[in-house]
Amino acid sequence: MSKLETNTIDTISGSTNLTLGGTNATDITIPSGVTITNNGTQSGFGGDNTPAFSAFLTSSQTLTTNTWTKLSLSDEQWDTNSAFDSTTNYRFTVPSGEGGKYLFVYAGGTETLSSSTLAQVAIYKNGSFLDSTITRSYPNTGTGGYPHKSIVLNLSAGDYIELFGQHTKGSDCNFDPRYTFLQAQKLIGV
């Protein structure tokens, strides 16, 4: 191993790029306690909050009263790793090598509910109930429900997350595509 000791490394006249490492380099090691000071433009540092996705209903979905039903989130605004299945299972599956903490935001909007009835949405992990949120329509009025919530989940590769809805209207009730969605992004640095 050779050692180079110097105070300044600069490009040769007429060149604008400085390359550390070459065809045989796989890592550049910065020792513990060293501070990297950036007085210019940086790229490739810090990472991205991916995988990330945003999935929602394409059209209204009718749910039977008092029955937990998987919401068919068949459209996506984004899906950085193609990890959300919007055609068959309507679920997010953590890709290989992407385990960690994820921030999920979820909601389900309903049409008009009967007075003092409930609307709920829940996250299921690997086919089992994990977390939910609930809202109640106002007494003596006919309003819709809009339960929504965010949660951080520690997930492993292969874990899958689905969104379910439920209501107590007493008859069928539609979940509205404008207000029914599931979003997530991997958190970095935690």
Report on the structure:
This protein is mainly β. It has one domain: Jelly Rolls (Sandwich). It is 0% helix and 41% strand. It has no helices and 12 strands.
Distance between the termini: 36 Å
What's the number of extended β-strand segments? 12
| Approximate helicity band | under 10%
Helix/sheet category: mainly beta
Features:
mainly beta, Jelly Rolls, six-stranded antiparallel beta sheet, 190 residues
Write a brief structural summary.
The protein is mainly β. The protein has no helices and twelve strands. It has a single domain, classed as Jelly Rolls.
Set down the secondary structure blueprint.
Layout: E1 52-56, E2 61-63, E3 69-70, E4 75-79, E5 84-85, E6 91-93, E7 100-110, E8 118-125, E9 128-136, E10 148-155, E11 160-167, E12 173-186
Antiparallel strand pairs: 1-4, 1-12, 2-12, 3-11, 5-6, 6-11, 7-10, 7-12, 8-9, 8-11
